[in-house]
Amino acid sequence: MNNSFLTIAFFWVGENIEIPNTLVKSIRLIMGNNVNVVQLTNHMTKEVNKVDAIKRYELPKAIMLARLMAYSKFENETQYTFFCDADSIFINKLVVPKDTVKNILLAPRLQDGKINHNYPEFYEEFVGKRANEVMPFLFGAIITKGNQKLFFKDLLDICLNLPYRFHRWYGDQYALSQIVNKGFNEYEMLDANIYLNVIREPLSYEYLRELLLRNVQFITFKGPQSKIYLDSALNMLEDFYNKDN
């Protein structure tokens, strides 16, 4: 691990590591070796290329529990950690917000809408609800100062007590809303337009240029074609940076 004050940590399990490979390629393209990159995973998943460290844990099969458990076991060694979704890329250098007082920074959900309570299975908690009512925060970008294992352990405990369907889907975001509803207020808001900009369509050169000029730092892809979008976005990003250099 290098001497950077910042760690980027991502969770990934599974045989195919192309998606997290793309994430790490974007980090090295933009920030070189000036940031620590840590893969959080189980004992079977392959190591992603060019990470500084891989942390392996004995994890449950249910994906929501596995991610929360991995976050709760991670011993951070730098001043800040950016926990992020792997189906994403960095397009500008990650700069931690200045003058933060609290130790946890959360990304609010900016795109609201009525939830399909039957997808991917029936969720009685979502019937007639909008996304911001039940999951007002996204889990794809969380910044912590110092070691916040207890925070993630509390989220894991909440998720463990939810119906099992939340262990498969939505459990991390739903647990986050539950802990805040119970009075947890030791957090500040991230600017989600900068630190968790959600993309649902393929990027054009023009839109990528606009994002770069707005100093958007991190974009995440949602939807069934997210892998295809990731590859094309990274290729365009490499073109931009190669031209500059």
Annotate the secondary structure layout.
Layout: E1 6-11, H1 18-31, E2 36-41, E3 53-56, H2 63-73, E4 80-84, E5 88-90, E6 104-108, H3 131-134, E7 137-145, H4 149-160, H5 165-168, H6 171-181, E8 188-189, H7 192-195, E9 197-199, H8 205-213, E10 218-221, H9 226-244
Parallel strand pairs: 1-2, 1-4, 2-3, 6-8, 9-10
Antiparallel strand pairs: 4-7, 5-10, 6-7
Care to describe what's here?
With 245 residues, the protein is an alpha/beta fold. It has one domain: Spore Coat Polysaccharide Biosynthesis Protein SpsA, Chain A, CATH 3.90.550. The protein contains nine helices and ten strands. The chain has a seven-stranded mixed sheet with strand order 3-2-1-4-7-6-8, with helices on both faces. Strands 5-10-9 form a three-stranded mixed sheet. β1, α1 and β2 form a beta-alpha-beta unit. α1 packs parallel to α9, α2 runs antiparallel to α4 and α4 crosses α6. The mean pLDDT is 93.
Number of domains: 1
Mean pLDDT: 93
Strand order of the largest sheet: 3-2-1-4-7-6-8
By helix and strand content, what is the structural category?
Answer: alpha/beta
* Name of the CATH class: Alpha Beta
**Low-confidence region ranges:** none
The Cα radius of gyration reads 17 Å
Beta-strand share of residues: 15-25%
Summarize the amount of helix as a percent range: 25-40%
**N/C terminus separation:** 27 Å
In CATH, the architecture is Alpha-Beta Complex
The number of helices is 9
H/E element order = EHEEHEEEHEHHHEHEHEH
Number of strands: 10
Outline type? globular
The CATH homologous superfamily corresponds to Spore Coat Polysaccharide Biosynthesis Protein SpsA, Chain A
Q: Looking at CATH, which topology would you report?
A: Spore Coat Polysaccharide Biosynthesis Protein SpsA, Chain A
Largest beta-sheet characterization? 7 strands, mixed
